[in-house]
Structures are given as structure tokens and as C-alpha cells.
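Field log, afternoon session.

UNIT: design team B
ACTIVITY: writing a sequence onto a fixed backbone
BACKBONE:
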């Protein structure tokens, strides 16, 4: 079954909360969103209906009722939408296996500059996110749900704060406590160990594991950490069931996903697609390109470039993207035009990623800086013939050696650029800057800042 991508702006223009509850087709997560602002609790219940009664009994739940939701999530095949695509049911069972009271953390920190999907959910459909958090908390016996949002995401913070206030006003004595926490705006602050460090009163920087969050997280209690989109899918699966969820998507990656489409496109924004939808259908839903394409970055700044010769026929599921070394990851589809210089864009991105180091692991501090410096030298020209091999060597040295996956992601996207932009990089190494180097940069990157901090908001949502 196929479904056309849906953008939040199209849905907001179509009558808001008068739309029916989600059907098998799209939209699902974005069903019923209003023209402006967020769905109120009353509007949300009109669109989606109340929480399933079997899961709405708070501390009086039985182990059997808790297992029902986790089993249904497993049958649905729900994978995490934060980038790693880890099975949601496995995470929940790991937390449920602890004998101590758990905490649920909803991660909408979204430090990825090219992604707006999680903050869009907080801004437009906060009660769907809270539904998923409450259901997960009741299944795990957790007494608290913490929603984490980036401190730069003003509208998302306001939308979620209002939703929590509505929930608290209507809460029964058995409902888990809901609270909102803002997170620093640097790139790795949303990594789960950094998030837990922040919630425990320390700096928002990654920590070495073990212990893992499901063993010892917030306040040393077992903690479920999932991003906002994953949690919102839980709310829909609980209402409509695993077979409904699997009617869209690929067998190995079922359901729908939110993606942020940007670059030379008529209508950039957040779209809901089914896994396996073609890139061409997404571009068509976005109104078409405004310039000829040179490449597309899939998955975000820890993702991979796919060159123009492979774009035709590209399908947006991990199974179809794997031969290109890519995955949907954080739900980013970033188009790069032929008007931009891909070598210069690669150097900009490598330097920004190096600046985002939290400066606590040597391979990250020194390795990413050396990687960025080498690419900058290549773009400037007149470098030795071994410069390309040096980039490859540095990338292999930094990967899998830090407290988090930041060096791995930086190495991955850089190596994919070497492959996708081999011709341009070789020309720059020999001749120096090209005419396109003077064109405006296309990748959405916050202004350079001291390590671990950013100074501007990400790509604006239309």
C-alpha cells in the first residue's frame, strides 16, 4: 500500500481538528493539527479518542496489562526514530525487568540543525506525545514522565508547557507526574547519556557506559529514553493495534516517519511519509526542486551523501538505502544543488562537527579537528597527493573511540562525501577554490561557537 507524503502545512490548511481520527493511510502523527499552534486536549481527544481503557489504570495495573502494550509494540515492529532505529519493545522490556521504579524521558532535544520533526510534534501535537509517555509510564510502573526540549525551540516549549498544564489540571490521582525540562542547544546534548547527565544536574555531555540508562539513569533509577516521534507512535499503536501500524511501510521497517525536507525545494518543511516511499514522491509533495540537484544527504549530519547519479529511484527505507551506505536516521532529507560547491560544504560541515566536540575524549577533540583541517586544506588547494588518504586514515582512527557516537557520525558523513564528491575534492586539491565556492552556503549550520555550544536557531520551519 502506498501513501502520499503529508506536510504539516497542508494539514493545517485543511481544517485542523475537524479531520477524522487517523486511518491506515497518512496522515497519522500529523492528523488533525490546527492551522496555528497546538491541538488542545479537547481537540486532541476529538481527533484521536481517549487512551485505551486497558492501559489507563495507573498503579492498579497488572503485569498482564503492562505486557499487553509491550507485546503489541513488538508485533508492530516499532523502531526508534531518533537515529539508531533500536527496537522500542526491547528497550521497554529492559526497563521493565528492573525491580526499581522507573522514569520515562521523552527526548526532543534535537540538536541536529537540519531536523525539525520532534519540535514540530511538541509544537503541533503535544498531547499525542504525552499520551505515549503516559502509556509507557503505566506499562513500566513509572511515576514520572520528563519531556526534554531544546532551549532554542521557543514554540515547541510553549506548546508542550501548555499541554502539560492542561493534563495536570485534568489529572487523576493515579496519573504519572509530567514535567518539562529544557536542554542546551549544542549538537550532542540530546545523546541519551548527555541528557541523563543534564537531568541529574551535571553538564549535558555524554558519559561513558555502563551503566546504561535502563540500569541506572535519572536519579539512579531505571530510565526509558526515547525520542518524541517514537513515543507518539506508541500512542497510536495502543489505540489502533499492530496490524494497523504495519499497513504502511516496509516489512522490516513498518509504519510512517516524519522527515525534514530542505534545500532547493519549493516548500521545505516537515513531512510524514511511509517507510519505503520514493524520494521523488517526497520531492513532488514539496512542490518540486528549484534547482538541479548535485546530491542528497540522508539521515542528517551523522548520515551519508548519495550522489545525483543514484538519486533516481531512491526509496526512503533503511533496506533500500543500505546499498548507498545510508539510513533514514534522524529523518533528514537535505538536497544540495549544483549551484553549491560540495567540497566547500564538506569542509564547512567537518569544521562545525569538530566544533561540537564536548572536549572530553582525545580522539574527538584532536581527531575531528585534524579531519576538518585536512579537508579545509584540500579545498584551499596545493596539497600533497596523500591528503585524501590522510582523511580516510583519520576517519578510521576516531571512529568507535569516544564516549558517544559523535566521532562515528562525523567520520561516516565525511567518508561518504569523499565518495560522492570525489571529482570536486580532487579538483580542489589540485587547483584550489572554484567559482562555486563564492556562492551562498546551502547546509543549515548554526554560527560557529566555542566547543559544545551553538549560537543560532536551526533551519526555520515554514
Amino acid at each position: 500500500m502506498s501513501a502520499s507524503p503529508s506536510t504539516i502545512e497542508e494539514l493545517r490548511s485543511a481544517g485542523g481538528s475537524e479531520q477524522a481520527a487517523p486511518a491506515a493511510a497518512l496522515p497519522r502523527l500529523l492528523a488533525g493539527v490546527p492551522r496555528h499552534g497546538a491541538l488542545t486536549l479537547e481537540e486532541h481527544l476529538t481527533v484521536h479518542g481517549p487512551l485505551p481503557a486497558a492501559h489507563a489504570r495507573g498503579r492498579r495495573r497488572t503485569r498482564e496489562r503492562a505486557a499487553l502494550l509491550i507485546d503489541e509494540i513488538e508485533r508492530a515492529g516499532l523502531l526508534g526514530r531518533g537515529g539508531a532505529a533500536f527496537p522500542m519493545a526491547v528497550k521497554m522490556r529492559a526497563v521493565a525487568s528492573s525491580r526499581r521504579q522507573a522514569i520515562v524521558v521523552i527526548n526532543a532535544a534535537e540538536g541536529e540543525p537540519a531536523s525539525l520533526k520532534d519540535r514540530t510534534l511538541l509544537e503541533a501535537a503535544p498531547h499525542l506525545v504525552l499520551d505515549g509517555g503516559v502509556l509507557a509510564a503505566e506499562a513500566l510502573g513509572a511515576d514520572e514522565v520528563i519531556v526534554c526540549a531544546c532551549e532554542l525551540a521557543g514554540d515547541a516549549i510553549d506548546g508542550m508547557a501548555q499541554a502539560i498544564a492542561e493534563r495536570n489540571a485534568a489529572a487523576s490521582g493515579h496519573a504519572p507526574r509530567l514535567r518539562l525540562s529544557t536542554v542546551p542547544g549544542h549538537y550532542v546534548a540530546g545523546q541519551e547519556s548527555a541528557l541523563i547527565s543534564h537531568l541529574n544536574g551535571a553538564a549535558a555531555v555524554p558519559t561513558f557506559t555502563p551503566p546504561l540508562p535502563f540500569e541506572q539513569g535519572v536519579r539512579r533509577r531505571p530510565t526509558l529514553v526515547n525520542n518524541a516521534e517514537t513515543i507518539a507512535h506508541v500512542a497510536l499503536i495502543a489505540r489502533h493495534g499492530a496490524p494497523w501500524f504495519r499497513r504502511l511501510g516496509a516489512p522490516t521497517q513498518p509504519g510512517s516517519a516524519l522527515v525534514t525536507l530542505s534545500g532547493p525545494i519549493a516548500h521545505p518543511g516537515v513531512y510524514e511519509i511511509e517507510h519505503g516511499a520514493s524520494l521523488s514522491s517526497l520531492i513532488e509533495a514539496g512542490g518540486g526542486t528549484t534547482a538541479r540537484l548535485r546530491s542528497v544527504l540522508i539521515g542528517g549530519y551523522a548520515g551519508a551523501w548519495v550522489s545525483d547519479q543514484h538519486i533516481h529511484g531512491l526509496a526512503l527505507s533503511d533496506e533500500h538505502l543500505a546499498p548507498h551506505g545510508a539510513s533514514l536516521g534522524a529523518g533528514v532529507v537535505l538536497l544540495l544543488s549544483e549551484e553549491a560547491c560540495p567540497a566547500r560544504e564538506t569542509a564547512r560541515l567537518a569544521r562545525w562537527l569538530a566544533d561540537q566536540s564536548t572536549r572530553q575524549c582525545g580522539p574527538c577533540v584532536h581527531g575531528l579537528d585534524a579531519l576538518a583541517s585536512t579537508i579545509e586544506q584540500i579545498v584551499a588547494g596545493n596539497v600533497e597527493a596523500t591528503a585524501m588518504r590522510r582523511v580516510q586514515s583519520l576517519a578510521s582512527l576516531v571512529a568507535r573511540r569516544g564516549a558517544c557516537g559523535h566521532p562515528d557520525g562525523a567520520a561516516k558523513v565525511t567518508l561518504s562525501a569523499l565518495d560522492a564528491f570525489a571529482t570536486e575534492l580532487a579538483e580542489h586539491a589540485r587547483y584550489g577554490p572554484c567559482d562555486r565556492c563564492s556562492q551562498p552556503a546551502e547546509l543549515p549550520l548554526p554560527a560557529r561557537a566555542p566547543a559544545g555550544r551553538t549560537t543560532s536557531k536551526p533551519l526555520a520551519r515554514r
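LOG NOTE: The longest helix spans residues 362-380.
NEXT ACTIVITY: expression trials, pending approval
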